[in-house]
Amino acid sequence: MTLQDLREQVCAANRALEPSGLVRLTWGNVSGIDRASGLWAIKPSGVDYSALTPADIVVLDLEGNVVEGKLRPSSDTKTHLVLYREFSAIGGITHTHSLHATMFAQAGRELPCFGTTHADHFHGTVPIVRALTPAEVADDYEHFTGVAIVERLRELNLNPLEMPAVLQLHHAPFTFGKTAMDSLHNSIALEMCAHMALGSISLNPAMNSIPEHILEKHHLRKHGPGAYYGQKK
Fold it and tell me: pLDDT tens across 144-161, in order?
């Protein structure tokens, strides 16, 4: 992948945020990485999505140094950087403040798997990540946001491509994928699942999570070694 390819892919994913309904104002960002070169790209801070061009996208290395780009990268850059450094399988990251998923994050409620729509995308309950300490916020807020996410995924022994989403307490969701656009698709799925979960709970406050055997069937038919969803490549 060339740097131009990377910038174009990341630009396209960021420009898709607003039409997807996931963001208002500039409340979100998408990044993507080229593992072969060790370079990754992210939206510049505070720039309207509709005005973004590939030339605006900021390219960095895995030390956090800007390699190309005249604009300041997203304020969430250090969070993305920690995740790329700690999980080599991650190829793209999306962060939004989408309405319903953020409700769960702010309430400190994990997102249970109530049905097959959720199971198709997320292998079980989407976890809550702990709040940062006062010392972490004062020292390097964005860096320690990434540290807390990594800590939670490892604590639960979760593969970030099988559980490509977390809910940051008091904050909002982060999603992961094989590419920038893939991570965006997971954000769309997360928001839809959160919306459906809130509606389901309102209809049946005593409802339980989906039975384990149905969860496993739906997730593995799409993501497992014997997956048969979609067309063969």
Answer: 999 999 999 999 999 999
